[in-house]
Amino acid sequence: GENVEQHPSTLSVQEGDSAVIKCTYSDSASNYFPWYKQELGKRPQLIIDIRSNVGEKKDQRIAVTLNKTAKHFSLHITETQPEDSAVYFCAAKRITSGTYKYIFGTGTRLKVLA
Amino acid sequence: DTGVSQNPRHKITKRGQNVTFRCDPISEHNRLYWYRQTLGQGPEFLTYFQNEAQLEKSRLLSDRFSAERPKGSFSTLEIQRTEQGDSAMYLCATLPANTGELFFGEGSRLTVL
Hints:
The structure holds two protein chains of two kinds.
Chain A: E1 4-7, E2 10-14, E3 19-25, E4 30-38, E5 45-51, E6 56-59, E7 62-67, E8 72-77, E9 86-96, E10 99-104, E11 108-113
Parallel strand pairs in A: 2-11
Antiparallel strand pairs in A: 1-3, 3-8, 4-5, 4-9, 6-7, 7-8, 9-10, 9-11
Chain B: E1 5-7, E2 10-13, E3 19-24, E4 31-37, E5 44-50, E6 53-57, E7 65-68, E8 75-79, E9 88-95, E10 103-104, E11 108-112
């Protein structure tokens, strides 16, 4: 069935260090992989995404990599700052018979220690 | 604010009562989703509308749950005979026709006593 696994569930890094969050999806029909950041009490917001025909995408300190063969994708945050502290969710989208379905991972709570 | 709007933001109810949540999407976003989020978990898919048609429902959605989007604009999610296990944040998200970005509302937090 459809499933997205996300690791680790919590991650603490020193300010300035890098953080990596990994996800694995099960549905080979998935073709779009967004990452959302959710601050406490706020709505999830898109921070970066990648489509299945691309292996890597970068936006300033944030990058995402995709390995379609292994069905893995990862979020990389470099030079972390205290304001990066939040819960991060990966997701996988598939289109079936015109239906767009998004399945989310269980989240990673990132703490950046000053 | 022209984002996705959800009401009420918080609802406290006694077990056995019915509750209804409303989602007003960004205009012209024809796809609308309901998700449930419990503490420490990611959003769980509940149901999906394309315009007024409900195209998919999760097996998580028992017969106590019903969702509508009568004119393809706002949507309602009703929970009948609430149970304590229904306590969660109910998130609405909408999707425009030409991108993959889901736009989430602030959510409606339900507490069932």
